[in-house]
Amino acid sequence: MSDIYRLILRTQLNRGRAAALLAIAAVGMLLAFAVRVTVSASDRPEAAYSLVDGFGLGLLVPTTALVFASTALGDPAEDRTLVYLWLRPIPRWQITVASLAASLSIAVPFAIVPTVIMALLADGGIDLVGASLGAAAAASLAYCSIFLGFGLVVRRALVWGLTYLLIWEGFVARSGTTATRLSVLGYARTLFADLAGQAPPTLASSTSVAIAAPFVIGAAAIALTTWLLCRIDVA
Amino acid sequence: MTDDAVIEVDEVSKFFGGIVALSEVSCTVGPGITALLGPNGAGKSTLLRIMCGLTPPSRGQVRILGRVPRRDLDVTRLIGLVPQQEALFDPLTALQFVELAGRLQKVDQPRPAAEAALHLVELDPGDGRPVRTYSKGMRQRVKVAQALVHSPQVVMLDEPLEGLDPRQRLRMIALFRRLADEGRTVLVSSHVLDEVEKLGSRVLVIAEGRLAATGDFHQIRELMDDRPHRLRLGADKPRALAAGLLDAAAVVGAWVQGPETVIVDTVDVAAFRHAVAGVARQRDVRLHEVVALDDDLDSVFRYLVGRR
Q1: What is the pLDDT of residue B308?
Q2: B73 touches chain A (CB under 8 A)
Q3: What residue segments make up the domains of chain A, in order of their start?
Q4: Contact of B101 with B146, CB cutoff 8 Å
Q5: Among B79, B87, B89, beta carbon nearest to A87
Q6: A-B Cβ pairs (cutoff 8 Å, strict)
């Protein structure tokens, strides 16, 4: 499994993707710095919370997961190198888990760490730093798990994934309870608010559900991706 | 099923939506070299992919040594596949790529096995360049090396000679023969008749998704040569030439087409070529062109499909 992990890590991470996501992270950090120098000390925790919630969890984390997780299996399927993994005596779940681990390994420096740095730079307090870490990690797990299988079966997954993030996660999921419960961001924001000691967002689920949801989503998505891998037509 | 069948294909059909890629193909493949011959788009790659388990048949079944490759993960240990596509894991070196294949195939000592496989295809294991910098021929050889690294019993190669220079082609064919002499089952797909001739093997001819003919190469060659051939003759007196050829029984049909053209059908090209000059002389016809109209492989395959 470690061979596939290393391979996926190496093939996923190219200069273009790294540069694009580091640029987004840099913008977030600049905004955080701007909060620190322009907002008064009393208003800073609130402003820092809003920045991490909106930019870190709402943009950086899902975009990073989309870019790397959807290409982990999507690229080999598209360029037809998947055959070199598939035609081996390896249980399919190992391919899925290794690809997920590679995507999460990339999410750490490109999404989770920058989100935590944003909380630090914006001077949001130690609770906000811890909350950023927990919520970004949980959201990364859920998003990466979902986008892994998404990239395997959907052509031009990046475009469709961005559409999903913008329309569903960014808009529809904020409009009703049921939609919120079908949104990773809804659970991530609930968890973030709880850990940061802030009032829960409207339409939030309970904290215990918000903690469990990323793991449940992750497990279900891994199972689905493995099932898809077993049944895929390998070109 | 024959006693030595390693691969059994039983009534296999494959549909992609409304398109029939394979239609009720049945055959067996035993140890030694077997060539899968057919024009582009005939269904060769689809059949190879089904044989490896990469895609399920819509109908029928494939077995490798009695096991179903799509369902049985361990069958992949028995198979070495050289796919048609050029793409490799580009950031890796050839040695890293082949060693990875060895590791995933659970080879005991993947590094020495990878080095040996690269030597087999005459690539330098010490070459530190990533495979993305390799020429088409070198990439082709890397693909062959990764298919052989675990010493599989069954080697399937989809157009493996494409992109190789003539010298490399000969060496690769010699390698395939050596693998066959070791008792392995080597299945090579090709759309080039001359390549298949050099393999000197048993041949499965596939065309339009159907198995058109099977036999050794010489039987197939005879079958192809015995078919009716159509030729276009350019002459100043086409009617006289057509009549003369029919009188001499050198052709089975002749049609005048235009002021200086005759189309003829013959079942014996050699006898026709021998007779045509004499008839032209005898009838005082100036013959200025003899062109075979159906000598391309596609028409040969169409003929073989049509006669089934």
Answers
A1: 55
A2: yes
A3: 2-231
A4: yes
A5: B79
A6: 61
